Amino acid sequence: MKMESSTGSPVADFYRGRSVFITGSTGFMGKVLVEKLLRSCPDVSALYLLLRPRRGHDVRHRLEDMLNTPIFDEVRRSRPDALRKVVAIPGDMTFPDLGISASDRELLTDEVSVVFHSAATVKFDEALKLSIEMNMLGTQRMLQLAKQMRKLEAFVHVSTAYCNCDRSEVREVVYPTPTDPDKLVQCVEWMDADMADHMTSKILGNRPNTYTLTKAMAETSVAKEVGSLPVAIVRPSIVTAALREPLPGWVDNMNGPTGLFVGAGKGVLRTLYCHRDMVADLIPVDICINLLIAVAWKTATATRNQHGKSSGEEQQVVVYNCVSGAQNPIKWGSLQDMALIHLRRNPYSGVLWYPGGSFKESRAYHDLCSLAFHTIPAYIMDAAARLSGKKPIMVKIQQRLSKAVQCLQFFTTGEWQFSDDNVQALMGEMTPADRKVFDFDVREVDWDAYLNTYVLGIRKFVLKDDPSTFPEARAHLRKMYFVHRLSQFLTVTITWRLLLARSQVARRLWSVLVGILARAVGLVSGVARAVLPSIGSIAAPVSAH
């Protein structure tokens, strides 16, 4: 049933006069969330952002730096006063009581109606103790704070679709974890860092990393501690560059596919262990943020409409799988083919080699290609750099790239069936105006056009390549194409010559091939001598006319 509104936007109306508390606001998703709330919910009262002072910068400087990024230019131009609604709250997810002062804590408990909890360490290879501290204990501290908020109407916890990657089918429910979160915390608490690292593989079980484990544990904590809190969980899959908002192609990090595109576009990534026929579950960041904002509205209105429940009765946690594979899947093979076209059409500046390579379905073949096309060339280029007096960097780049690729292999060689029934139901409850402003319909994504936007976004926002560099970049790419083809020709020629010199079988094969080629040339010449006089006799009368 659709909610009616005087403005046609019940979602925007819901945020009118309400204050929002956001963790993880300086992250990729957090920035887009702040910008979207300021631009599309103009009557929101205040946005309180939990910020951690670091590297000698207080939270005010961090807030200024964030608001000076290009994505806030439109808000700055059209609603400059809106930026004053953004308030920094000093704190730290790893501290007791989140490190929030007594006065700020009182402000939050008195004023906040909506909480978006997205702060987390997203490093796949993060140390277990820190991952537990941030992703599990940080979430528990947030829930304790939320229980004190007098006006709270919605608490939206941002998880990941891959927290249940030990299952092939993932429905929109909170699954029990093999280990109780509290017991895991108690177990790891007395270990030092070295012992925890040594025990990590046993604790992970069949999960690939500490990130997916601790996010699953955090969900269990949310479900366990929910009580009467109005809580929802949103699980994005692989969050990628913006489709449309705040700027097409906007991205500010090298995580996930972004790093792969940079490596491939620069010519240094030429092989990846990946199953081409499996689904790459990408989700543009603006689709994810629109869903978050709508989920908070839905959570609040659903709780408000449950007249039969007393205020202290336990709530049910509603889960939303924010994924693309259920409605508009794209496979890794198609992703590779389309991305390479756009990387060659819109080249990055200073490519080191012509963009190419491919996904490998065999780990052994991938490892061989990695040695041939990544490791050996990196050492050769560093040796050349040393001889010319330059700083060698390629081996370090390849080592970092190899580490990043290895972290992704679990996801590029697996496939999961995510259901998104709750997401589709929520879309059906929204008005046409809200479905347009807070659009999270992934069926509308044209993947080929989106990947073109993605590649251009990386070029502009990550690599900082000015559009004026396109002619030079394309000219350089043409040179690299000929260098690439020349190197292929020389490699084949040298390899064959070595085989001829060392193998009698190769010499015999070469003699056979030369004989076949000679006979083919003789046959073509004989046919030509027989046919040409006939063509001449036909052509003569025509020319006479």
Count all strands and give the number.
Answer: 13
- What proportion of the residues form beta strands (DSSP E)? 5-15%
Task: Tell me roughly what share of residues is in helical segments.
Answer: 40-55%
| Main sheet overview | 7 strands, parallel
Which radius of gyration do the C-alpha atoms yield? 29 Å
Question: Which segments are poorly predicted (pLDDT under 50) over 5 or more consecutive residues?
Answer: 1-6, 307-311
Shape: elongated
Chain-averaged pLDDT: 88
Tally of alpha and pi helices = 19
Head-to-tail CA distance between termini: 82 Å
Find the structural class using helix and strand composition.
Answer: alpha/beta
Strand order of the largest sheet: 3-2-1-4-5-7-11
Q: Oligomeric status of the shown chains?
A: single chain
Q: Features of this protein?
A:
single chain; alpha/beta; seven-stranded parallel sheet; two-stranded parallel ribbon; elongated; disordered N terminus
Structure description:
Helices cover 54% and strands 10% of the residues. It is built from 19 helices and 13 strands. The termini are far apart. Helix 18 crosses helix 19 (504-544). The relative contact order is 0.11. Strand 4, helix 6 and strand 5 form a beta-alpha-beta unit. The model is unreliable at 1-6 and 307-311 (pLDDT under 50). It is elongated, with a radius of gyration of 29 Å. The protein has 545 residues and is of the alpha/beta class. The strands form four sheets. It has a seven-stranded parallel sheet, sandwiched between helices.
